[in-house]
Automatic annotation (TrEMBL):
Keywords: Membrane, Transmembrane, Transmembrane helix
Residue ranges crossing the lipid bilayer per the database entry: 6-24
Lineage, top ranks: Bacteria, Pseudomonadati, Bacteroidota, Chitinophagia, Chitinophagales
InterPro entries for this protein: DUF1266
Domain DUF1266, first and last residues per copy: 85-211
Protein name: DUF1266 domain-containing protein
Organism: Polluticaenibacter yanchengensis
Superkingdom, natural source: Bacteria
A Pfam family hit: DUF1266
Length: 243
């Protein structure tokens, strides 16, 4: 009796492993096909130094999502990005994409946080203290940032790239949006430290836990590779000036 049970369990395990291998192979082929199609329909012109500086404004989210920090070429299946835009942003068309991106570029959400940031409160001090500790900065430096502009700017750069991958933006439109985002950041921000603090302020006031991204932000800000790994362009803020 026991031997029969072991045989059945073993057979089921073998079948599941085979099914998993088939699924992984199918997904790999789909990814290769989609990326090949993307490359065949886009210019594939190398990113210039000027464009790399613009991409630095999306570095935090690019690093967090394990994307190339200084490139606009996708690494995963395109249908994953399509589903992500639909689920997270309710973007299903070029019109949807441009509407959302225009809202980000106008700092619509970030400006809603201004009254909270400009009026000191125990809750704000708590957030600023957590950010200072997480980024290894003096609290006085963190308090100098009085806008959450980078929360919208960083998201606009990241979102523009994904909309481009999904075919909702042309390459020219994508670079136009990213350049507008960088220029807006310069108008509101001072340097990469201010930008990082601003991003975390906005993200935390949006309702996210600062601990979710504080380590990545610190590594980008101080050009620190994580333990046992070397990240390409982790020193992006050293490579390119804020303004």
């Amino acid at each position: 009796m026991n031997s029969n049970v072991y045989f059945i369990v073993g057979a089921v395990a073998v079948i599941l492993i085979i099914c998993l291998l088939i699924l992984l192979r199918t997904m790999k082929k789909r990814k290769q096909k989609q990326l090949k199609s993307f490359h065949s329909n886009h210019s594939n012109i190398p990113v210039t130094e000027k464009q790399k500086r613009l991409l630095a404004f999306g570095a935090i989210l690019s690093y967090h999502r394990m994307e190339d920090i200084l490139n606009i070429v996708p690494k995963n299946r395109l249908d994953q990005y399509v589903n992500g835009l639909k689920d997270q942003w309710d973007i299903n068309s070029p019109e949807d994409a441009k509407t959302i991106l225009n809202n980000l570029l106008s700092l619509k959400r970030s400006k809603e946080f201004e009254p909270v940031i400009l009026q000191p409160s125990p809750e704000l001090i708590k957030i600023q203290t957590e950010i200072a500790k997480g980024l290894d900065l003096d609290l006085s430096i963190v308090k100098q940032t009085t806008s959450a502009y980078a929360w919208d700017i960083c998201r606009s750069v990241s979102l523009a790239k994904r909309c481009y991958w999904c075919g909702y933006l042309s390459e020219i439109e994508t670079w136009g949006i990213i350049e507008t985002a960088a220029n807006t950041a310069i108008q509101y921000g001072k340097n990469w430290t201010d930008y990082t603090v601003s991003f975390l302020l906005g993200r935390t006031l949006q309702g996210f836990n600062p601990d979710d991204l504080i380590i990545e932000c610190k590594q980008i800000l101080h050009s620190q590779n994580p333990l046992l790994r070397k990240i390409t362009d982790i020193d992006v803020y050293k490579q390119y000036p804020f303004a």
